[in-house]
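Q: What residues go here?
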């Protein structure tokens, strides 16, 4: 059985573009580059805060990024970054189109 793409939506209540820029700089491998296993990333202002949408190759890929990079860096504190954990929605994706 092939691994299914896995989607994550994070909503940061009261989050801002500046907080996003600081946070993404701390957890992504470089400008315009995605972490290993991530195949899609989008972010923007939404009602009441900031929303990030990501698609990983698999749930395992997401968990490796989350546990190995995202959570440790957020727990250390990211200067200028988001100050509280997001509301998280996970999606076992049925279809991903270009």
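A:
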């Amino acid at each position: 059985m092939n691994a299914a793409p896995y989607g994550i939506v994070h909503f940061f209540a009261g989050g801002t573009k500046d907080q996003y820029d600081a946070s993404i700089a701390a957890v992504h491998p470089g400008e315009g580059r995605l972490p290993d296993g991530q195949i899609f990333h989008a972010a923007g202002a939404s009602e009441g805060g900031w929303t990030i949408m990501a698609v990983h190759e698999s749930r395992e890929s997401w968990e490796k990024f989350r546990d190995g990079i995202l959570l440790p860096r957020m727990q250390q504190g990211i200067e200028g970054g988001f100050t509280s954990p997001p509301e998280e929605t996970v999606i076992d994706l049925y279809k991903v189109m270009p």
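A: Context that may help when evaluating the design: Helices lie at 17-27, 59-76. The radius of gyration is 13 Å.
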